Amino acid sequence: MEYIRLENISKSFGEIVANDSISFAIEEGEVLSILGENGSGKTTLLNILGGIYRQDAGKVFIRGEEAVINSPKDAYDYGIGMVHQHYKLVEAFTAIENVVLGLSRKDLLKAYSRFGADLAAKKFQSCSLKESRKYVLEMCNRFGFVFNPDKRVSDMAIAEKQSLEIVKVLFRGVDTLILDEPTAVLTPQETEHLFDVISNMKKHGKTVIIITHKLNEVLRISDRVAILRKGQFVGIVPTDLATESSLAEAMVGKAVDLDIHRSDIEHTGPRLVVEHLTVRNREGRETLSDVSFTLFGSEILGVAGVSNSGQKELLEALSGLARDKDGSIIFHNPKKNRPVTFFHKNVQQVRALAAQGKFYFEGGEPCSLVGYSNKQITELVENRKILFYENEIIDLSRMKPLEIRNYGIKLSFVPEDRLGMGLVGSMSVIDNMLLRSYRKGKGRLLDKTKSRALAEEIVKKLDVKTPSLNTAVSKLSGGNIQKILIGREISNRPKIMMVAYPVRGLDINSTYLIYRLLDEQKTKGTGIIYVGEDLDAMIAITDRILVLCDGKVTGIVDSRHTTKEEIGLLMSKAE
Amino acid sequence: MNYVVSFLAMAIKFATVFLFGATGEIINQKSGHLNMGTPGIMYFGALGGTIGERIYLDTVAAGQPLNPFLIFLVPTLFAILFGAIGGFVFSFFTVTLHCNQNVTGLTLTTLLVGISCFFISAINKEGMSDAGLLLQNAWPGYKAAGWFGEIFLSQSYFTYFGVIVAVGAACVISFTRVGLNLRAVGENASSADSAGIPVQKYRYIATIIGGAIAGIGGAFYELDNAMGMSFEAADGIDAFGWLALCIVIFSLWKPAIAIGASFLFACLSIAPDFFAPYLGAAGFVTYILKMAPYVATIVVLTVVSIVDKKQQAPANLGVPYFREDR
Amino acid sequence: MTIKSLVKKLSLPFYLTKRIGFSKKKYWAIRAGGIVLAFLAAGIVCTCLKPGSFGEFYVQMFMGCFDPTDITIFVDLLVRFSILLLISVILIPPFKMRFWNIGAEGQILVGGLVAGGIAKFAPASLPNIVVLLICLAGAMLASTIWSLIPTIFKAFFNTNETLFTLMMNYIASTLSLMMIYIWVPTGSQNFGALTHGIFPTILGNPGTLAVAFTAVIFAGMYLYITKGKHGYEVTVLGESVDTARYIGINVKKVTIRTMATSGALFGVVGFFIVCAVNQSFSATIVGGQGFTGVLIAWLGHFNPLEVALFAFLSSVMTQGTSRVHMPSSAQFSAICTGVFFFIIIACEFFSSYKISWRHNEKKEASV
């Protein structure tokens, strides 16, 4: 039976058309997936249904009647509730306070009667938190949720927050539940549990709409799947008739190769050796405990874990940002065949070191310098004929970011928060190139010639779509922002590169471009630490995966011989 | 003994002005509005109170006795109205027009102080100082209760009303659904919105009510002949407003604590003028005493920031909310 | 259609969307419209307070600022503008750094107090220029200290700087009153006319030279903010502390350095106000310009040139309205300035949001 019908829904943000005249119908009691790439407008569309956005044009019909949804409250009144990708919970409140938030006495009484209260039997029904708790727990029993009413949201794990969101929406008596990318932050096991919850809700007659870009999940859970592409509606098909490749093709608009290329090359020896790294946050709590691992050159080391397991802290500690840390971080700088210079040494010292057999000539023959005159030595050194092999070993554990850079260590960092840490949103593309290098040049004024050249190069090479080099980066799309950031970090020719969630929010083309760039860096000898959430992609691109759980390393596995389930278990391995 | 009694009685009177201002501002801030227009709104309330009193005095025929309760009630209603208008303007600019709260607040203070000064000085003040004396008569015969009566029963209706308002606000904020919703709006407006709370409405109402309460404080100051202190009438209400902002922080956003904090600040504020006659050659000490409330606020600010890492302020204080922001 | 949806249809007839990608032309058209509207509103306020004075208001405004027969009036305006411009521009770096310094008032006042004190007690045997230099140095030192007190607490303990600097204003003002009490035995509320350590009067105004110096300082600040490395660091720090830390900016150092710079410059402003413009000192000598500067820096979007425009308009508003005959002209001027700023603030709204009407036929009624 037709339940919700969208008719010619359009919505633009400035010049970006997020939804272009979308029409389709949702049936009662089904599990419908809304599938599309990042930026295809699926979240926008459902936000219109959930009352967050107001459509520019088009109508929504619910059970044949036109529905005007101007706010989330209106959406609830129509029986539609939404669980957003970024949870909308008040951190300072307890679970039960979050559930009853915003409900009037009338709403609460309705909810009570829905979950077992006999209002007629009582003269006066109190609506205190104590009463509410009773009925919320009753509801949780019915749907199979574990619920701790007095736990503060700020103390909750990510999966707990999600189930609290679902409880909150269900308590409002919705018939339709919209879940925006619900599995993005869950372990495989938690995802299974969520799927159980969804089928349970379906059994109770609820309609469930899932926004996702993961093909396997679509096939797993949904009855039908609606596909969006670049803001337009492509079609709606029963899941039985779909395959991964047919869905991918519909989603992207052409046949796509979903394989991620991983170059199989020998690693070039240890690049970064971390031992017993412990990091504490401002309140003195340990966010990383006793982490040890070795990163090799020409290797991509994945870091997996549910969110807030210490990934961010690990990367920040390695780049010198952590304030309170113990343990050692040793960097092996492979400076092969460097010419001897008079920068640190004089002729006598060169002679002495040569006698110890430290130096050699270009051809590789040893150079003891016995019998050479000072003048000859000076000439050889100045012509850079005398070489030495150096594998510099530097302890980074006490260094700040600037000291690391001043030491000449090429360490790149693509942080999770692109506009909050990697780039400055209000600054132009050119000015953002300056972030790492603005100190160079004499005088008190900035020298922008080099950064302009670099910006031009990146825009051209990585096909960044920007109106001009003077456009503020925050005005660009997520994919283009990430290209600029990665482009800048790669231009540094890093020895170590750390990337956090590099493809989050990107469309498929940009995603694969980023994967390709990372793999290319690997073949150039860079050691890469890759923090991500999509385990399938991580297994495909990395060489090894380090799993973090609650700040501890629970295992390091070989990506070529592991499974998602194995990693999932390590991710939730409680001690 | 006498000095102590009259000092404490005077402090309580002063504290009333602070208490109204602070309670109003706490309600503002609980909704996420850092309203720096409060000093101006208090001034505007004083204008309302003055107009109200003029109207009341004009309706009473010459020679007829004045009703002390009406001297309290009529100006208060006008002060509420004017304060509410001030709060409405602030929320119109910050909620509907999404303007910056600091800038709106400072401008509002400039404007309202200008308007209030302009009109208060134009109003005929005949009979007002006598009416002001009648305000104290909330409990006629308070002298029978000795020092207790002198300190606690000699106060005007405003003082008792102020305490009721503060306690009431504390209860509403902590124990009711409306209070829970209000706190949610101040903590995380977007979460509150998605829970079905009309964020804009809450912010409007909180700011209007907060403004109305703050306005009463200004009116009391003005009607009580500027506390009989050495200032010109209506001079320096905005200074009270800024101190009220400090009290909000001092009392960690809790109206019940604000009652005590207001009293403390009142003691610090009146001490210099109270002790001035006894200082003689060391007259500059009064100035040092005058700095005390400001220094005390700084000390509290600093101590709170050092000791309390979590910060008690509503998490979304000063943050505008636009639903379509992503 | 149910009653419920009917009720909803009757709710606000428009809704807002954020403007993205806004042409410079349109932006300035809206700003210009706002400025015209703001001046118009001031005239209307005047008419309300004094019926029939609408035309007179503008004549007085013009004559009060640009009287062609009296050059000193325009010089007055320039002096007023210079001081306000300096204050607003000096506030830009702290604001860009998201350091909400609303203590300009106090920081200027202590500078003025020290400059005035030195000028008052300097031995008559010292040449004027030497006294002036000592006054300048003293003022800069005092203002720097005054602005560093809240800064250090902010840098080390993240103490709320808005309220801290605000309190420092009141302390500065009380301190000034105390020093006047101590130094002026007559019980007067000011130092009286200074005879030593003062700027020469040129074109009928002792502040004329200060205008020339202001031009130099403004040029320097313009380069510092828009083209300098320090300005760049300040912008990055204001946008994101994390980014700043990652690229190796020492957050504490930059915060303290920026505030010390702006403090020292506020000392210069205090010095100008006392030794040049007023040639005297009282506790109300800054007269709220520290707060007006905050508004102007904000309305100018921290862009020195836009800030200069608004500082000029505000000076015209203040000086022009003070010429209009009103029972209490200072308050009248405050009312006009308040209305003026409110309308400009409101216009900000139209440049960042677009109003769309709910009914499709009336779509696109953006301003």
> So, CATH architecture of the largest domain in chain C?
Orthogonal Bundle
Find the structural class of chain A using helix and strand composition: alpha/beta
In what order do the strands lie side by side in the largest sheet of chain C? Answer: 1-2
Q: Name the CATH homologous superfamily of the largest domain in chain A.
A: P-loop containing nucleotide triphosphate hydrolases
Elements of chain C, N to C (H/E): HEHHHHHHHHHHHHHE
Tell me the distance between the termini of chain C. Answer: 32 Å
Largest interface: B-C, 43 and 50 residues
Total of helices of chain A: 20
Shape of chain C: globular
Percentage of residues in strands of chain C: under 5%
CATH classification class of the largest domain in chain C:
Mainly Alpha
Q: What is the tally of beta strands of chain C?
A: 2
Q: Taking Cα atoms only, what radius of gyration of chain C do you get, to the nearest Å?
A: 23 Å
Query: Biggest β-sheet of chain A, characterized?
Result: 6 strands, mixed
In terms of quaternary structure, the protein is heterotrimer
Level-1 CATH class name of the largest domain in chain A: Alpha Beta
Contiguous uncertain segments of 5+ residues of chain C: 6-10, 360-367
What would the average pLDDT of chain C be, to the nearest integer? 87
Q: What profile does the largest beta sheet of chain C have?
A: 2 strands, antiparallel
What is the straight-line distance between the termini of chain A? 49 Å
